[in-house]
Structure prediction request, 446 residues.
Amino acid sequence: MKKIYRDLFKVVLPVSFQYLMMSLVSASDAFMLGFIDKDSLSSVSLAAQVAFVYSLFFGAFVYGCSVLAAQYWGKGDKETVREVLAVTMRYTLIVGVVFTAATMFAPGMIMRIFTNDPVLIEGGVRYLKMVSLSYVIGGFAQVYFGILKICDRAGLSSLIGSLSVVLNIFLNAVLIFGLWGFPEMGIEGAALATVIARVFETVFMIILIFMKKCISLDIIKTVNPAKCSKIIHKDYWKYTVPLLLNQLGWGGGVTMYSVIMGRLGSDAVAANSIASIVRGMVASFCWGVASGVSIILGQMLGRDELEESKKAGGSFVRFSILIGAISGAILLLITPILVNVVTLEGQALYFMKIMMFMQAYYIIGGSLNSTIIGGIFPAGGDTKFGMWCDIITLWCVVVPMGMIGAFVLKLPVLVVAFILTLDEFVKIPAVYKHYMKYKWVRNITR
Prediction:
């Protein structure tokens, strides 16, 4: 078991650091735009939901890649891993083009989904037009971030991602405030910084490919589906479709949280934005554990180490609860510091303090469920249960309750916010019951 945890932390530490650095970008956006005014912070917070929705697509594609590629990598079949990479890249870039076109040509229509405030819509439109190219450019790098982790180069993935974040934060300051002779661009500056950072990641990945530091992309198989193995293509979609529906169902529900909060006023939006960003930073290690568990268990299952995988899975479940509890305690400890740092005032500041407490217990359930649903189950190709679990919990329970509470019963903002933190705990009994069936303990390689 010690060796398994050593292997796990080789993946978890760099991946968690990368997640942390990525969340710092959102934090720097919020912190810097908060100095301009509350409306700039709120409008960009809502507009950033588009990037979140896009991440659901490429996240599902990369997860599907991990399900197959991790087991084939553990088996030693690198050529099949390369073919899975080509299939993943094809669909990620197609969706990236769609998101780029939508935000470039119809940003106003998109912003009206999230809010009816004309000031927030105007700010979000300016952001989306400028940031639109980042979707198609960033998709390429995101697929390679995933494949580097599978191919035992998680540290390299973390290095590139971290350098990109440092560049993004630096450019945020320069372009938002107009430092060193650059124009003061405000909201558009934050968007342009994001685009430049995505270009940096893509160029870095291309250099690594030419240096043979990672698996090269088969361009012919990427652009021509007929050149790919029908069996691999079928297997890829067999495991990816449930993951995609899961991501869209879960992510759509989370996006509905923003839609609900976006209609409760800018104080609620700003407070929820800060609390969610801080939770995301602290939860980076939880997400890193889920990602590492999926890769390590996938490689073990690909080597037919079934009993060892079952024991390791139980240990990972207990570990995830411990990590969640520690993360919750950290959120409570940093709340007093956060109160003195953020630029929020009055009711918005009060909302944020209470929402931080809610995030502290929410993260415990999130840590457990992300490890089991996002790590253990996909490692063995068990991708359908998570889809149904998340969709039913969010769309049949929490989102309807939140909408009724906000728009029918007209409940206070904090009561609505509490309702929207129930999803992780509602599904725990069903998740653990399914885990104990051990349907995920299987080798899915051909």
Summary: The mean pLDDT is 81. The radius of gyration is 21 Å.
